[in-house]
Amino acid sequence: MTEAMETPGSETYLAALAGILADVEDAGRVIASGQIAELRVLAAAGRLAEAQGVHSDANVLLHDMALRSISAEVAGTMRMTDRTVQRRIGEARVTIEGFPAAVAAWEAGRIVRGHVSAIVDAGVNLPAEMWAEFEAIAIERCEGQTPNRVRGELEILAHRMHPRSFAERHEKATAGRCVRLVPGRDGMSDLIATLPTVIVEGIHDRLTQQARAIIDTRVERATGSEVVATDARTTDQVRADVFADLLLAGTPALDDTRDTTAGPLGAIRARVQVLVPAATLTGHDDGPCDLTGRSPIDPATARTLARDTRIWERLFHDPTTGVTVSTDSYRVPSGMRRFLQARDQHCRFPGCRVAAIRCEVDHTHDHALGGKTELSNLAHLCQRHHSMKQFTAWRVRQLQGGVLEWTSPLGRTYREDAPTPAVAFTPAPAQPGDPAPF
C-alpha cells in the first residue's frame, strides 16, 4: 500500500473509499433481490402445504404433515434443520402476504430488510384488518431512518393504534413474567428473566454503573519495569460478576469500601428516562409511555415513577405540530439542557440510539472556535460519535429546527432530523369539573 493510500483525505484514499461504497451499494441490491426471492419461494411452499388440506375433513392434520414434509425437503437444499425452515416459512408468509407494501418498498430500495422486520414485528400485534393502515404509515416513518432508530417509534405507533388499551394488554403480559435457565456449553448457562421493561432497564443500568465504578478504580501494580492492571476484565464480564454477587449475596462482593451500610457500589441506583403524556399522567389516557431510546412501558408504571421521583420534568408541545417548545422542572440544571434532552432523546449521529441521558452535549460549532452555547448550536452525541466528530474527517452543521447535516470524508451528506416527539397533544375544549393537568 502506498503512503498516499494510507493518508485519510488524499485523492487515492478517497477514490478507493468511493469504490468500496459503490460496491457495497451494488452488493446490497443483489442481496436484497435474493432475500426477497427467497421469502417469496418460502411463502409459496407454505401455500402449497396449506392447499393439501383444503378438501379434507382432517385438513389441520394433513396441512401440518404436508408442511413438515415440505420443510424437510427444502431444508435439505438450504442445509438447515426442518424446524428452522418451517419457522421461516411461517415468517415468510406473514411478511409476503400480510405486509406486501413493505416488501414492495424494500424491492424498490426505499427501505431495507431491517425496516421490513421492524414493520412486521410491530404490526403483527395489531388485528389483521389494521395491517395495511399501519403498514402505510410505517413505511413513511422508515424512509431516511435506520431500522434500529425507527423500531421503537413503530412499536409506539402500533400500541396507539391497537383497539385494546396498552394498560390492559400489559396487565395480561405481566402474568407471563418468569426466570428461565437455558443450559449452554463448556459449563456455561443462560439465566433469562422476563420482566416489565422498566424493571429490566433499571437492572441493566445499575449493573452498568457499578461495573464502570469498578473499572474506573482498578488497582495497578509494578512488575519490574512494567505496570500491570490487577483486573483485566471487560465491562460485560464485570457486569455479569456483579449480577451474580447481588443475587447470591445481596451485595456486590467487589465493593472493597463497604462496611455495615452499603458501600459506593451498593449505593448506586438505576436511572431510567421516561416520557409521559399529560393525559396519561392524569389518568385520562391509558396509552403507552416511551422509555426513551428503547420501547414502550405501561401507563401504571409511568405514573408510579412520576409520583415517586424527585427529578421532575414537564414537557410542553405545540398542539399543532407536536414539537417540544419548552420545559420546566423542579430540579436546578439549566432549562437549556432539559430542552435538549426533550428534543434529541438520543445521540444525534445517524442510526445511534444511545439515550440522551447517557450522552454528552456537544457544541456543533466548536466553542474554542467561537461556537456559542445556544440551542441552535447544541446537540447530544454519545462518547463514540463525539470523539469521531473531533478526531476524524466527519463534519456536522446544525440547520434550522435542530436538524443535523453530517458530511462524510467522501462528501456524502446525511440529514439527521430531530426525533419525532414521543407524545403529542390534541387541543380539546375544557369540560366543567375537569381537574387541572398539573
From TrEMBL:
InterPro entries the UniProt entry points to: DUF222, HNH_nuc
Database matches in Pfam families: DUF222 (PF02720)
Domain of life (superkingdom): Bacteria
Single GO MF descriptor: endonuclease activity
Secretion signal, residue range per the UniProt entry: none
Boundaries of every HNH nuclease domain copy: 335-387
SMART domains cross-referenced by the UniProt entry: HNHc
Keywords tagged on the record: Endonuclease, Hydrolase, Nuclease
Protein name: HNH endonuclease
Organism (species): Microbacterium oleivorans
